[in-house]
Amino acid sequence: MNVEEEKPKNHVRGKQGARPQDALVVRMRELEGEGMEEGQAFHTAMLEHRINRFTGDHLEIFIYGDFDPPNAALEFWRLR
């Protein structure tokens, strides 16, 4: 059995054969190189990835931990 046969049936590759997690790791390492800690770099890279794949009109973001809420609703520009 070769390596190709051992892959799960639902294994999907993105553009040019790269896996989505490869780009995520590359971006995470870039952020770490800019001085960001590993955990924050991972979560930032993941958020950027999710925003780039976003196709809808409504984006919900849940924030956990210490957070000072704004006094009024926040308005953001269109993502796409």
Helix content: 40-55%
- Number of structural units classed as domains: 1
Q: What is the count of DSSP helices, taking H or I runs of 4+ residues? A: 3
Order of helices and strands: HHH
Structural class: mainly alpha
Largest sheet: none
Cα radius of gyration in angstroms: 17 Å
Low-confidence runs of at least 5 consecutive residues? 1-14
Strand portion:
under 5%
Q: What is the overall pLDDT average?
A: 77
Report how far apart the termini are.
45 Å
How many beta-strand runs? 0
Shape summary: flat
Describe the structure concisely:
This protein is mainly alpha-helical and 80 residues long. It contains three helices and no strands.
Summarize the structure in words.
The chain is mostly helical. The protein has one domain (1-80). Helices cover 42% and strands 0% of the residues. It contains three helices and no strands. It has helices at 3-6, 20-33, 38-53. The longest helix is centred in the middle third of the chain and has 16 residues, at 38-53. The radius of gyration is 17 Å and the shape is flat. The N and C termini lie far apart (45 Å). The relative contact order is 0.09.
